[in-house]
Write a structure and sequence with these properties.
Two copies of one chain form a homodimer. Chain A has 201 residues and is an all-alpha fold. Chain A has helices at 4-27, 34-41, 45-51, 63-75, 83-118, 120-144, 151-174, 179-195. Chain A has eight helices and no strands. The longest helix of chain A is centred in the middle third of the chain and has 36 residues, at 83-118. At the A-B interface, helix 5, helix 6, helix 7 and helix 8 of A face helix 5, helix 6, helix 7 and helix 8 of B. The structure holds a DNA duplex (30 and 30 nucleotides).
Chain lengths: 201, 201
DNA sequence: TGCAAAACTTCAACGGATGAAAACTGTAGA
DNA sequence: TCTACAGTTTTCATCCGTTGAAGTTTTGCA
């Protein structure tokens, strides 16, 4: 099953990712051309597009994995678990994953984060991916509580939770807080979404 | 103050908007070229870019106005008003405005909405604009409650409310609901954000 | 070993975006 | 009214991302 062909493709893909991220870091996103990326990865520029749909996409090569984790968590609802219990578990496991995964690749992740926040084109792409993920998460939440939640309510719940966390994290980043502060912000935002805005007085 | 030069610029701007939206409607966004827009508006393609930063931007010519309305509402907090009272007022006035404004330009607005939801490039741009608006709204909310809310809490509140409404509306649109249904979805989502996700059981 | 499919390259073209310089047009002041 | 200047627009050249088509190389398999 895992023939030479498959392995080669994986190697090419990784070479493109490595080359792209290194160049984006060194010279900025706009400033690096596809020709440069392709040269460093030793393929033609045309080949780039059989691995990624756009120059932006290469920066989000792993986002699918993280979404899948969240969806799996939603699918793993235990019988007695309430909507908010389950959502808390999704947030927690995502944060855990972020912390654990960052141990070896912290440099990389932080760098990529900064890149995405700096480059408008990447920001737009990130928001679109996040949005599409939320739609999938809403579906998964509805599947976990088919009787208790309507599709619209599921969407409202997912959007409210993630929307709050996202904006809180972004403001935290804008204020140049430490990683710890930002994680605290994320948790506080989740709390606010869970308790409702009325709890703010 | 309002010299010929100023009037001419406004007319050119409007001509570009009209030409672009008409063409987007007739042939789709990707399919219409800047050359066509410019020709119909009777300017050179280069001139397009002194009015709009990109082909996408022309579809969002009025978004700034709507954000300003919301920010003004936030700034108009009355002494006894709570955080949630004020936020409810923002949602209501935005919905009102949407309904009222759509009376004369309903065709236009609906068409533009469909366009944005269909074209990925426009969706990405819309999400970026919405995100930036939320940051401004969060600042305004913090300004309205400087003692009761931290900047991060303000962001969490705005993100949670708008995030929930946004996703609920999108799911409603995906399910092809009527305008009335979608407004109901929006209100239900706002309610959920206000009461908190725990209220979902 | 030879063949079919998959992957890659080359080539050409399109369209969005940008910089620079030339041409044009209101505007304000002599 | 004329003129000089500032603001606008056009023209021209160029870059780069993206895509289709056609041909070449590589890999897996009979």
């Amino acid at each position: 099953m895992v023939g030479l062909r498959e392995r080669k493709k994986q190697r090419t893909r990784q070479a493109l990712i490595d080359a792209a991220l290194r160049l984006f870091d060194e010279k900025g996103f706009e400033e690096t051309t596809l020709a440069e990326i392709a040269t460093q990865a030793e393929v033609s520029t045309r080949t780039f597009f059989s691995y990624f749909a756009s120059k932006e996409d290469v920066a989000f090569y792993d986002s699918e994995d993280r979404v899948r984790l969240a969806i799996e968590t939603l699918a793993s609802r235990t019988p007695g678990e309430t909507v908010s219990d389950l959502l808390v578990r999704v947030i927690d496991s995502s944060i855990d994953r972020m912390i654990v995964r960052q141990a070896p690749t912290f440099e990389d992740a932080a760098l990529r984060m900064r890149l995405i926040l700096t480059e408008p084109a990447l920001q737009a792409r990130a928001l679109l991916l996040l949005f599409e993920s939320q739609l999938r998460l809403a579906k998964a939440l509805h599947a976990a509580f088919p009787d208790r939640l309507t599709p619209v309510e599921s969407a409202a719940a997912v959007g409210s939770l993630i929307g709050g966390v996202k904006l809180a994290v972004m403001v935290g980043l804008e204020e140049d807080r430490s990683l710890d502060d930002i994680l605290r912000s994320a948790r506080r935002a989740a709390e606010i979404a869970l308790d409702g805005l009325r709890s703010l007085g």
